[in-house]
Amino acid sequence: MKKPVAFPLILIFSLFITSFSCSNNSSKSRKPVSTISVIPAKTNYVFGDKVSVRVQTKVRNGELETVKLFYNNQLIKESKEVDFTVDNIELKTLGSSSFSVEAVKTDGQKNTRSALVNVFSDQPAAKFTYQVINTFPHAKTHYTQGLEFVKNSLYEGTGEYGTSGIFKTKFENGSIEKSVMLDEKYFGEGITILNNKIYQLTYKNKKGFVYNLENLAVIDSFSFRSEEGWGLTNDGKNLIMSDGTHVLTWIDPENYSVVKTVQVANNRGLINYLNELEFVNGTIYANVYTTDMIVQIDPQNGKVISEINLAGIIDMYKNNTDKIDVLNGIAWNEKTGNLFVTGKYWPKLFEIKLVPSK
């Protein structure tokens, strides 16, 4: 006759339950949990809108020490309350802005939560078309990535693997005075000229090069944080780069640290694919990649001031056999006071005046 097994099974089960209960002891300190409510709730907001933000925090055990509310990493309120509201917060950053909360208990347990809001420009962009003043030859082999005048000489940066370089040209006839080529492993991108130095980005290597303006000799190189390098200009003090998104990044040319970033938007949404850049009279002009559009940007806040439609500018100058790519290349000529524009593999460089759209 077999011995009964019920008692040992009950004992084992009881020990298991006891062990499980101990491992999930309610006395274990738990993190506080906060929720953020933006009022009024909208899909998109407008620059200058004022909102209220309500913060509610649950503390399951222990005591709350402090709750901090931040707007774009700037502290706007600190409280010991589990439920509070901050009114009249002005949304003054374009693009994706964030409200974040850090809740801390007296035992050191803490937790963070965040909420994102999209902010667009509060003003419609002025609309412009163009008038062609002059046309000049442009090398059809140049995959144009950067364009800039120094005095009356035109400097052009080109892309594609194996054909990337920098060219100093006489824009009147397109003749090349000096040039330097990148190693074939680099895909050249935007260029800018500051303090007698040429700065050039590369596409996916997170690396840039610095050249002596006089002889185009490489004198330095630098790294940047963005995944990709696209356009490059400067405001007389810092480099300004685009990376294919709606973000512009200011970079210190001495140590290549990030000074600030600005998100670009009009009154309809974010402007992505910002490409070749040119700083003109305190504003930034940018090609919008794959389009015939140039946008003029306020560098202080990222608002699009104007939109310039260059549709059709190359049409009468191209042949069916030409390998024409997109508009890309903006240069400001102080002598004429006009913009010069071209594109990748375009046979012409255009001097244009802006004309308000009817």
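^ that was protein a. below is b, sequence first then the tokens
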Amino acid sequence: MSVISSLNRLLTPVPQTMLVAAVATLSILFVTVLASRVAVLMHQGPETRLVERIGEVYLDGLSAVVEPNAEVGHEKELMAALERIATYHDGVREVRIVVRSPSGQILGDLARDETAAKAELPRLDTEIPLTESSDRNRFWVQRPLWRGDRDRARAVLSAQLDLKPIRDERLAADIKSLAVNAIMALTLAAFGYWLMRRLLGPLRLLETALDRAAAGDPQPIGAAAEVPANPRLASLIRAYDTMAQAQVERAQLRIAQAERLRAADLGRLAATVAHEVRNPLAGMLNAIDTARRFPDNRAAVAGSLDLVERGLAAISRVVDTTLSLHRPPPGGKPVDAVDFEDLARLIRPAAARRGVRLDWRARIEEALPLDAAVVRQIVLNLGLNAIAAARPNGRVEVRAEVDAEGLIFSIVDDGVGLEPAVMRRLETLDLDWIDTSEGGIGLGVVMRAVASLGGRIVPGRRETPPATTIGVHLPFATASREDPQDAEERS
């Protein structure tokens, strides 16, 4: 497995199209060489049988010369006959001829060289058609010379043949065949490589384009590629060009959309600041009007000044929050009963202008570990939205109380109510939705503020009598306020 892994790592940088062409070329070479080797091996069998036939024919001719003198007492005549045979040869060259009696006595022995003279003689009791000696190019052939009745051998004729010329000729033919096959294999492999590279040219362009697309730069192939003859490849390239063009257009659209979102963010920021500053300003103007109308009433003037001071503090906090990119500074003042009294005084003028009866009940007896500015933001926006949604001469009810887990308040109006989709988004604190104009600025401020305190919104609707309820639960456990942006990311 380690060898395969190393090979994969080595071949990873090589394009797949080049690998395919290389594998096809190597396959052609391998098949050609293998075919040549099989042909050579197949020739060895006929070659061996041919040599055996040559040995038999040679023994036939030699027997005719040796047989008349192949008996004890005719040694001189036998040697003379053997020497005559040694003076000529054609094709097959004998290097040693031995004639032995059936008992093993050597009647005649002619050796052409020292190696042949030292060669071990074959056994007498077997007829040897072709036997390899210690020298791979020399073979023994042996045949008994029978008497007329063929019951008993007169002598045994053994000859060692040198087949090196035949083998050299066969080897030269094999080398020539292998050379021709190698040249043909290389030529065919080169042609196959060129053909495969040409056929895979469109795929190579497509592979390069896909690598560029994976690196984040998708570009259509376009006119860079010749139209392939294969209609499926042509269709594949056209499909890639369509995809790449769409990707380029999407990237351009994302850039344009980012610019539009940036402009929209700036617009929402300005609208949010104006919305949050305008709400306390209305109550502060009423307080100033009260102080002017009753300059001699010290209690009324002092209460109005306190309300103006707290309103200005709330506006200052909105400005600080905006300057810190919607990341309010930690450590806000705990909410208490005075904050809810201020909220009632800020909301009542708006209710009076629309002829809406405001029923305000807040049971806050001590300071609570919740950021007062954020709680005021939530209640003020929900209260003003409820007054705007109430029927003319209708009724808005605000309830606030404390339990063991946190602050609970609800705002009820008798208006037409919210859409079910809006109620679901309020309940799930869908912070992505509030970034659109659909949700409105007030609801967006409320949802971000509730999320920053780890709270939840519970909207409800009843039909008889018609009423819409927005309940908010702010737990004490998350009184250490978290970043609204972090709350948005977590949701």
